[in-house]
């Protein structure tokens, strides 16, 4: 894979992490003060380990974010702001997927449709072009692909294997066969094979089963995945079937993956609506893993599983109960940028 572009694994070295600050014109408006507090916790956890690039809608949003982060003691030298228009803050799905051939970089820019047309996404769809115009990425190439794909829908092991769910990509492209989608993903992302999961979903997830809420690659041919141990829970059978599928997957050289099952948090319900409290939706940064926590007894067990799957990294838990109100968590809000891609 060294002689062509590939999608690095998340645990490879990074230049920083990209987020977008919530403001009154986003869907966070109804709970803005509460979500800003959660964002301060998330930003502080990331900035302790590497630079944080913060998209802001305008100067007023920048001043607000800067004041909140300063009051919380977040190191301003770790922060960089970039002004850009955006509909919402889920940068895992609207931010760039960055490929590298070892010396050069290519920003892959898929069409963003608001998760299959559920929400307005026109400004989010132009975000990568805006960031390039701001000079964020230096000499990195840019490949626009007029085909709907969100970053949370795929996982890469950095060595040519992608992991995804049929439920999501079939919903986005019902007219395409699996073989056609498989070929497109390989070409666009420099992959040699695609592994598909048929099962797995979470209530409160409006992405049609993004893989990053369900199962994640980890170093050394490992997979971390969400389980449910409550037979009375509506997720029990579906996640048990997903477990069986994952256990049947094989590495590129034919070996079973090392499996790290995550515990199940108790149901979190908001105004009668169950929220998607997945532990799989964590972010890997240099030296650490930023893991969502839900004020649940299972938080500590989840941290131990994540630590075992990512040896040598500290596990930093951030309270994600406000984040999941809008149907996503830590990983959904962030996009890592591989080492070398940012302009000085």
From TrEMBL:
Keyword Transmembrane helix: no
Keyword terms of this UniProt record: Hydrolase
SUPFAM superfamilies, per database record: Pentein (SSF55909)
Residues annotated as transmembrane: none
Lineage top rank: taxon: Bacteria
InterPro entries found in the cross-reference section: Peptidyl-Arg-deiminase_porph (IPR007466)
Pfam families for the chain: PAD_porph
Protein name, entry field: Agmatine/peptidylarginine deiminase
Lineage: Bacteria, Pseudomonadati, Pseudomonadota, Gammaproteobacteria, Lysobacterales
């Amino acid at each position: 894979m060294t002689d062509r572009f590939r999608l690095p694994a998340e645990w490879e070295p990074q230049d920083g992490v990209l987020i977008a600050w919530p403001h009154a014109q986003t869907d966070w408006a109804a709970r803005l003060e509460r979500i800003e507090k959660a964002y301060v916790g998330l930003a502080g956890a990331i900035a302790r380990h590497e630079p944080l690039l913060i998209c802001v809608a305008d100067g007023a949003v920048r001043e607000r974010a800067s004041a909140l982060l300063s009051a919380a003691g977040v190191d301003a030298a770790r922060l960089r702001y970039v002004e850009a228009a955006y509909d919402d803050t889920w940068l895992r799905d609207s931010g760039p997927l960055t490929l590298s051939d070892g010396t050069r970089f290519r920003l892959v820019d898929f069409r963003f449709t608001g998760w299959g047309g559920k929400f307005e996404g026109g400004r989010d769809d132009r975000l990568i072009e805006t960031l390039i115009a701001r000079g964020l990425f230096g000499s990195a190439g840019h490949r626009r692909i007029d085909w709907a794909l969100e970053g949370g829908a795929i996982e890469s092991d950095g060595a040519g294997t992608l992991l995804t769910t049929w439920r999501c990509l079939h919903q986005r492209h019902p007219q395409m066969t699996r073989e056609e989608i498989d070929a497109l993903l390989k070409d666009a992302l420099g992959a040699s094979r695609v592994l598909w999961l048929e099962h797995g979903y979470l209530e409160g997830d409006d992405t049609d089963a993004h893989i990053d809420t369900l199962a994640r690659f980890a170093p050394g041919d490992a997979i971390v995945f969400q389980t449910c141990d409550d037979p009375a829970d509506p997720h029990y059978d579906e996640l048990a079937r997903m477990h069986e599928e994952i256990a049947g997957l094989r590495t590129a050289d034919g070996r079973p993956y090392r499996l790290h099952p995550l515990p199940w948090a108790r149901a979190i319900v908001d105004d009668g609506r169950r929220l998607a409290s997945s532990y799989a939706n964590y972010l890997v940064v240099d030296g650490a893993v930023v893991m969502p926590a839900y004020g649940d007894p299972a938080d500590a067990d989840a941290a131990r599983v994540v630590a075992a799957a990512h040896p040598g990294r500290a596990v930093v838990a951030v309270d994600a109960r406000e984040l999941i109100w809008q149907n996503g968590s830590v990983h959904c809000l962030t996009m890592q940028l591989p080492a070398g891609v940012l302009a000085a």
